[in-house]
Design brief:
The protein is globular. It contains eleven helices and 17 strands. With 416 residues, it is of the alpha+beta class. It has a five-stranded antiparallel β-sheet, with helices on one face. Helix 3 (58-77) crosses helix 8, helix 8 runs antiparallel to helix 9 and helix 8 packs across helix 10. The longest helix has 25 residues, at 25-49. 44% of the residues lie in helices and 28% in strands. Strand 5 (144-156) and strand 6 (161-173) form a beta hairpin. The chain has two domains: 1-205, no CATH class; 219-248 and 339-415, PH-domain like.
C-alpha cells in the first residue's frame, strides 16, 4: 500500500560537547558550585528572616564550615590575583556564550522528522539524524493520546547558557512521547498542533500551563477563585469602556521581589563581597593551622574581624566588577518593580511595563489565555498571528489572578 506523508519537519539536534567545552568543564563545575552555595545562603537568610527556618543539620553545618574555611585559605593565598582571576573567568564566560550563540544561529545541521500513514489506522514516526542514522516508531490510532506544546530552552557552550528558545510540539502515545516539530513562534506551533490534532481527533495540551480553556482547564480547577479575585497585589480599574488590570506593590510583594532580584542578579555582588571577606578569614585559618604543617605556634590576634566588618580596599578591577553588579541588580529591580498593566478597550488588548507600551493584540484574534509555570513563569495571550508574553510578576498567584481577571473581562465584553 502506498504511504501517505502526514508531516515533515526539521528540528535542531543536540550538540555533543566539543574540545573547548571539555577544557572548560572544571571551571564550569566551580562556577556551578559557587552559585549553589550563593542560592543556598540567600534562601537560608530569607527563611530565617521570615521565621521559616527549621532545625539545622549539625553534620551539614560542619561540612559547609570546613569547605568555607578551605576556600577562604585559598583566597588568602591568592589574594593578590583574585581580581584578575575573576576578570579572566568573566571574559571566558562571555566568550563561551558568544561562541555558543553564534554556532547555534549559524548551524545548518538539522534532524528530519517525518510521520507517515502506512495503512488505515497505522502510522510510522521516523527521525533521521545529521549522520544519517534513522529511528522509527510504529503506532496505531488507538495509541495516540494528545498533542503537547511545551516551551523549551536550548543550552549551549561549556557554561550551558541559554542560546535558543522554542516551542516544541510532541505527539503523546500511551507509552512514549514523539517530538514532531520545534517553532520559534508560538502561534505557528499552535497552528501545526491543531492541524495534527485533527488527523487523530485528539486534544491539545499545554502541560506546563494553567488556564480555563480546553488546553489547560484541568489544572485550573484547583484554584481558589475567591482568594485570587480578592488579592490586594492586583488592581482592576475601569475608565469608560476601557478595563485595566495592573500590579500593586505591597510590603510582602516588595520582599519577594527583592529576593528574586538577588537570586537573578546578585551573584556578582555576592562573589565580590564574599571574596574580600574570605581573604580576611583565610588569614586566621592559616595562622591556626600553621603548627599542623610544621609552622610556628601562632600568636593569635583578631585583626581579621576588622577586615570582615570594614569596607575592603578596592582596586580598579574591583570597581569595575562592583559597577557591573549594581547595573545588573538595577536593571532587574526596574523590570520586577515596574508596574505591569493590561488595558482592554473595545477592539484590542495591550500591555505595558511602567509607562512603556510593549505590544497589543486585537480581541478578535485571542485564542487562549494561560499561565505558564516553568521553565520561565509568564502570562501568555495566544493569538492567531502572534502572541503576547507578560513576565516579571512576583509570584504564581499573581499570574493566576491576571488570568482569572482577564477571563472575567473578556466574558463581560463578549456578552455586550
Amino acid at each position: 500500500m502506498k504511504k501517505t506523508e502526514i508531516c515533515r519537519y526539521r528540528t535542531q539536534p543536540w550538540q555533543p560537547p566539543n574540545i573547548w567545552e571539555r577544557v572548560l568543564w572544571p571551571l564550569v563545575q566551580v562556577k556551578k558550585t559557587i552559585e549553589r552555595v550563593y542560592h543556598y545562603v540567600l534562601r537560608m537568610f530569607w527563611n530565617e528572616l521570615m521565621g521559616k527556618g527549621g532545625e539545622p543539620d549539625p553534620f551539614v553545618q560542619f561540612i559547609a564550615f570546613f569547605i568555607f574555611s578551605f576556600l577562604s585559605f585559598l583566597m588568602y593565598r591568592f589574594r593578590d590575583y583574585d581580581g584578575w582571576i575573576f576578570a579572566g573567568l568573566f571574559l571566558l564566560w562571555l566568550f563561551d556564550r558568544h561562541l555558543a550563540k553564534a554556532q547555534f544561529d549559524s548551524s545548518d545541521e538539522y534532524e528530519i522528522i517525518v510521520v507517515e500513514s502506512t495503512e488505515p489506522g497505522k502510522f510510522t514516526w521516523r527521525r533521521t539524524e545529521v549522520d544519517g542514522k534513522t529511528h522509527r516508531v510504529s503506532f496505531e490510532s488507538n495509541e495516540v493520546v494528545k498533542i503537547d506544546i511545551c516551551y523549551e530552552k536550548f543550552p549551549g557552550g561549556a557554561f550551558e547558557e541559554v542560546v535558543g528558545e522554542f516551542w516544541e510540539v510532541s505527539l503523546v502515545l500511551k507509552d512514549c512521547s514523539l517530538v514532531i516539530c520545534q517553532k520559534n513562534d508560538l502561534a505557528q506551533a499552535f497552528r501545526e498542533a491543531k492541524r495534527l490534532a485533527k488527523t487523530w481527533d485528539i486534544p491539545i495540551d499545554f502541560p506546563q500551563g494553567e488556564g480555563f480553556d480546553d488546553y489547560t482547564f484541568s489544572r485550573a480547577r484547583s484554584w481558589n477563585y475567591k482568594a485570587l479575585r480578592s488579592m490586594s497585589e492586583v488592581l482592576v480599574k475601569q475608565a469608560g469602556e476601557n478595563d485595566e488590570i495592573c500590579t500593586r506593590l505591597t510590603a510582602k510583594q516588595m520582599g519577594l521581589l527583592l529576593l528574586e532580584v538577588f537570586q537573578k542578579s546578585g551573584f556578582l555582588l555576592f562573589l565580590l563581597v564574599a571574596t574580600k571577606f574570605m581573604v580576611g578569614y583565610g588569614l586566621f585559618v592559616e595562622k591556626i593551622t600553621a603548627p599542623i604543617f610544621g609552622g610556628p605556634k601562632p600568636h593569635i590576634d583578631f585583626s581579621f574581624f576588622t577586615r570582615m566588618i570594614t569596607l575592603p580596599k578596592l582596586d580598579i578591577l574591583d570597581g569595575i566588577e562592583l559597577v557591573l553588579a549594581f547595573v545588573l541588580i538595577g536593571y532587574s529591580t526596574w523590570m520586577l518593580l515596574s508596574q505591569k498593566r493590561i488595558v482592554l478597550d473595545k477592539s484590542r488588548l495591550s500591555f505595558w511595563y511602567g509607562s512603556s507600551k510593549q505590544d497589543f493584540l486585537p480581541l478578535s484574534e485571542i485564542q487562549s489565555i494561560l499561565f505558564l509555570r516553568h521553565p520561565t513563569p509568564q502570562l501568555i495571550i495566544l493569538g492567531t498571528r502572534k502572541s503576547l508574553f507578560l513576565r516579571y510578576l512576583s509570584d504564581d498567584n499573581v499570574y493566576r489572578c491576571f488570568v482569572l481577571r482577564l477571563e472575567d473581562i473578556l466574558e463581560k465584553k463578549t456578552e455586550k
